[in-house]
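The instructor's notes for this session suggest beginning with a concrete chain rather than abstract definitions. Hand out the sequence below and ask the class to guess, before any prediction is shown, which regions might be ordered.
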Amino acid sequence: MLAASGASPADSSPLTCAVGDRSYEAEISLDLMGEAEAGLLLFYSHKAFVGLGFTPSTIKVWQYAEEQSWARIPHAGCALRLRITNHANVVTWHYSYDEGANWKRLDTRMEVSGIHHNVFGGFLALKLAIYAAGAGQVRLRDFRYRALSQTT
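After discussion, reveal the predicted structure:
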């Protein structure tokens, strides 16, 4: 369980995970409880992240630490499985309503090679992260990570 804090990823307290591979895939199932919003991010800092999140009525796209409201996807539900594929700093997002049996790909891919210390300072790293914002909490289930070969 991850308690919600803040109004968005920009002021939340994301749960982060360092990644040592240049190319990888990660996925997780998230269940919203209360008035929570949740999602999967690549997080450098509160001023530098990208991600995919959702509320009970909307899937949200985050780029350059801002929601891209034009890219909202209507949906209905409090459970979603999210997947990120980062292949040498080119990120593809997928989401599934049936625990990963069928995936829908987000049309927008993201290039994240510019999210680093020379641009944002702080000597940080781009990490996998899960955020929970709003009021309530989020149940985290079945996190999976796998390294990808450079030819995958």
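Then share the key points. Residues 29 and 99 are 7 Å apart (CA to CA). Residues 117-120 form the longest helix (4 residues).
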